[in-house]
Amino acid sequence: xxxxxxxxxxxxxxxxxSKFEYQEDAHIDKFEESQQNIEVSEQNEExxxxxxxxxxxxxxxxxxxxxxxxxxxxxxxxxxxxxxxxFYAKWFTTDWSHLHIRNIGELSGSSFHPIKILENxxxxxxxxxxxxxxxxFLKVNAExxxxxxxxxxxxxxxxxxxxxxxxxxTLFDRKSKNYRVLYYFITAAVSYSMLIKLNGLTFAxxxxxxxxxxxxxxLNTNFGDFTAQKLYWIQLSFVHNYEIFAGLAELLIMxxxxxxxxxxxxxALAFAMIGNIAFVNHAYDGGIHLAASFYVIAGGFVVxxxxxxxxxxxxxxxxxxxxxxxxxxxxxxxxxxxxxxxxFVFGFYFILSGYLHWHNYKHDSYKVPSRPGLxxxxxxxxxxxxxxxxxxxxYSPVDSLRWQNVxxxxxxxxxxxxxxxxxxxxxxGRGKQIKDVDRAYESAGTGGGRRHFYYEExxxxxxxxxxxxxxxxxxxxxxxxxxxxxxxxxILSGINEQKDSIYVVLDKKDRKYPLYEGKQSEIKAF
Length: 526
Hints:
The chain contains 14 helices and 11 strands. The protein is of the alpha+beta class and 526 residues long. It folds into 3 domains: 1-48; 63-363, no CATH class; 379-520, Lipocalin (Beta Barrel), CATH 2.40.128.280. The strands form 2 sheets. Strands 3-5-6-7-8-9-10-11 form an 8-stranded antiparallel barrel. The radius of gyration is 35 Å and the shape is elongated. The chain starts with a helix and ends in a 6-residue tail after the last helix. 31% of the residues are buried.
């Protein structure tokens, strides 16, 4: 009996102890869970604090940040918002039934350009279809105005206006805690400005017309007779795959800038890639260094807002939340305007611009004349006989009047060399001209006595009317009668640009060009 009671007491004590241990374990689990929740909460708070955005960019900006933003806002507003009335008028005066790629360029923004830099030589300031404002209050002549530091004078003026405007803004605005809404919209405006300004050059590479195939005249011009910028352009004329690759890279920039979530990558790529183009244009006197440099400052401005967080994550190795402010677009009309603008930009500057550049590539390359040349006349010709005012002129490599090294293209351009010097047409032939005579890609940036003429043929009278393609000598004309006694011989006679009578016998030469032929097989003679 005593043993039974003892066993019963032992069992009761054991059950009591088990219940106590179970309750103790439960209290420990709850305590550990509570501690984990506290740690998670502290970690989330630490992430926000370390990123500098405890409430998602709702914090107060410092005085330095606000002053810097005011200056930057005014500066970029002047650079990206067209202030030229003519730009807006073109939307109503453009012939939409016969739209051309040049029209797309004219409708792709307008640069801040109140101070005009006078050209040091004809054509040097030609930037093609890149839009510039026609509102100009001052004209200056500076040696470095075309390619050097003076070409940035309008940016300097915009920065000065930004500093003065920022100072006035600071005096009248003491209550604003931050400018997150304005920052959101000016960043979006800068991003879309980069996208829109880039569309023409992008599709001109995707459908390779920006650097067209080398013309015969270029293949038969001495290397040293080209300007630096022309050398840069023509070196891409025989590597169209690279030109297309560059165009696709620029198209990627446009796409990344179009979407808010990928805007950083588009701006960073624009900064790096097109910034390199700016350096190249300075090195080669390319003429579009200003347009390319815009992507350096604009891309840097867009990227700037991400840099503190990237630094915190990569350099400081701390957990970082992005927390950039995004405008909510709560109102219906705001949503409609946003979707409408994005749809228009994509349809006009992606779809329509791409189609027009494809059509131009297939049917009418804007760099060279669309009018075909003499039938089956393309080639290099030696001057077998030359008469000036009915007097024979014997061949001499140093003769300043006798033609040498004549080329006829498959389009309506003829070129020849004389031992003489002329003022070089300075630009590289960037413009998207409508008229054939104005398409000066072959002649632009070429010296050494090489002369280029666009011609119009009258097949009934067998007369060629030649127009000098060098813009410096655009009024020069030649009227020549032609005969073709055989497929390889052409005889020209008539009046040249100096009003002298000439008689020229041309015989075609069979010349091979290692640049092309050498890609296929070994060239033994040329």
